[in-house]
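Title: Request for sanity check on Methyltransferase prediction

Description:
We are preparing a figure and want to confirm that the structure record we downloaded matches what your pipeline produces today. Could someone re-run it with the sequence below and paste the raw structure tokens into this thread? We only need the token string, no images.
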Amino acid sequence: MQASQLPTFFSHITQELLNAPDEVRRLFHGRGRVYAGLEQITCDWVDSQLLINVFKQVDNQFIETLKAGIRALSQTELWCDKGVTCAAIQHRYLDGSPLEVVVGQLNERPVVVESGLKYQLNIGRNQNFGLFLDMRMGRDWVKCHANDKKVLNLFSYTCGFSVAAIEGGATQVVNVDMARASLNTGRDNHRLNRHNLTEVKFLAYDIFKSWGKIKKLGPYDLVIIDPPSFQKGSFALSKDYIRILRRLPELLTETGQVLACVNSPQVGSEFLITSMQEAAPQLKYRSRLDNPAEFSDIDSDAALKVMLFEQNGSPT
């Protein structure tokens, strides 16, 4: 990355901040490689805070120029007009991904709004704050298509898909994730939205050791698969994803749908299509959901891939 390109970063932030909604939003997405020299920096608008992530080691000049730019921005009328309360840099390339507050005071546990729904975030303690912003269109799709459906949400994390599904009228959602703390945040997210928790299950299971229990709660009208690209000791996308796809026929209703997601730049959309053809040929590829416009990428196959599949008997 190049310090000389940071004026482009701040010019973009200024323009996006002018139009920033009251909801959580990505303001700058360097990782889409649209901006030369800024490929490893992002900026999110989170409850009146600017959260900047630097993903790879940079020289001291870059960091000092970045901080100076933040301080200069904090002196503008725009900063006051938008009510910005904090700007911080998370150094994702360092052990522990430390967060450095540059201006203001950090609210570590804000409640944010996305598409009218509330989510509890936790900033600075982990690499990710509890909601993947590039998945907004996926959550919106689920909210629009979940009415009267039973939903299985695999690798549920903090249950964003579950919140969207219940809001959209799902009769039940089964969330499965090994991280009990993430599921606890998921409960909080449902409570924030005044959902009936009797309609939601939270299973702290190892998916690969729990198929019998998961199947027993089905069959499901919609299965959502949103795994990490790699999780040491538990999941490797290239070899383990197909193990999940093979289970789909026994989990789904006759007209069931699958929303299958991959967020690895090394794995393209064709991986999911060919893997599904091999593992569950009765499930047909229907469409790929758009990503939010702010997550533009010079290579769409390197960006997030959210793919819809349906059983043969499903409506198109």
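Thanks, this matches our download. The domain at 133-311 is CATH 3.40.50.150 (Rossmann fold).
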